[in-house]
Automatic annotation (TrEMBL):
Residue ranges with Low complexity bias: 205-216
The protein's name: SANT/Myb domain
Annotated Gene3D superfamilies: Homeodomain-like (1.10.10.60)
Isomerase among keywords: no
Short name of any one Pfam family annotated for the protein: Myb_DNA-binding
Recorded coiled-coil stretches: none
UniProt KW keywords: DNA-binding, Nucleus, Repeat, Transcription, Transcription regulation
SMART domains reported in the protein's UniProt record: SANT
PROSITE patterns: HTH_MYB, MYB_LIKE
Length: 252
DNA sequence: AATGAGATCAACCGCGTGTTT
DNA sequence: AAAACACGCGGTTGATCTCAT
């Protein structure tokens, strides 16, 4: 026989987490660490499956999370990494301490994709979108709209097509120059070579109070009190906005 | 002020891989 | 060796928020 199942889904709570549930999970993990997600909900007194607890911890409750908007520099780095790694969000996230794969994935899908499209780049291939094809489409539209007005001469329409292609070629060159500038500013290869090291350092699923204390270089007894204060202070989501203050004081 | 569209993001789902029995 | 499972990952969904009309 194999392992026992992680959870039977009957009677388990789903949907958004309550503050009380967050408290329970945080208290449990900070006091006991994470050894087996399957046991976490049972031992923490939660009616959730282990998978859900893991996700909540990694994406929201982890003390080392960096919250707030992505900077333009971070976005540029994500774009570069995505060009090399594709949709391997966890790999990409490992280059951004305090950011989660889910966060980066969401940011990519909602903002960066649009930004790239505006730059005339395909978000999947990172190559310029075929502007000639676009020009032809535009041309087709013009032809269709002008076909109703047959008075216009065909030579005039051809001139329009040449004009469109010329314009789109200029746009492409501009975009490519910008993209080249972006890439030349960073040593991606060297960055990617650090991949393994970075991944080893930031392993959010295998942390404990003990490891947090060790990483800060202070004894656990010195840490316990403020840590508990921190846990107790999380009474609403809004309080997380002030988290950086606690982070500096307790963990790093 | 009401409403609809678009944007955002937390959470779920299903699958692949590695681990345990 | 094979079955059964946990874990982690990427894709997707849907609730909520924001903004324009």
């Amino acid at each position: 026989m194999g392992r026992q199942p992680c959870c039977d889904k009957i009677g388990l709570k789903r949907g958004p987490w309550t503050i009380e549930e967050d408290h329970k999970l945080m208290n449990f993990i900070l006091n006991n660490g994470i050894h087996c997600w399957r046991n976490v909900p049972k031992l923490a007194g939660l009616l959730r499956c282990g998978k859900s607890c893991r996700l909540r911890w990694i994406n929201y409750l982890r003390p080392d999370l960096k919250r707030g908007a992505f900077s333009e520099n971070e976005e540029d780095q994500i774009i570069q990494l995505h060009a090399c790694l594709g949709n391997r969000w966890s790999k990409i996230a490992s280059h951004f301490p305090g950011r989660t794969d889910n966060e980066i994935k969401n940011h990519w899908n909602t903002r960066i994709k649009k930004r790239l499209k505006l730059l005339g780049l395909d978000p999947v291939t990172h190559k310029p979108i075929d502007v000639k094809e676009n020009a032809e489409k535009k041309f087709q539209t013009i032809v269709e709209s002008t076909s109703e007005n047959l008075i216009e001469s065909s030579t005039e329409t051809e001139e329009k097509q040449s004009e469109l292609e010329l314009t789109s070629n200029k746009e492409t060159t501009k975009v490519l120059q910008g993209y080249e500038m972006l890439w030349s500013g960073m040593d991606v290869e060297q960055w990617l070579n650090l991949d393994m090291n970075v991944s080893n350092i930031s392993s959010p699923s295998s942390m404990s109070l003990e490891s947090l204390n060790h990483s800060s270089g202070e004894s656990s007894t010195q840490q316990e009190k403020p840590l508990q204060q921190w846990v107790d202070s999380v009474d609403s989501i809004l309080l997380w906005d002030d988290f950086n203050h606690y982070q500096e004081e307790f963990f790093f």
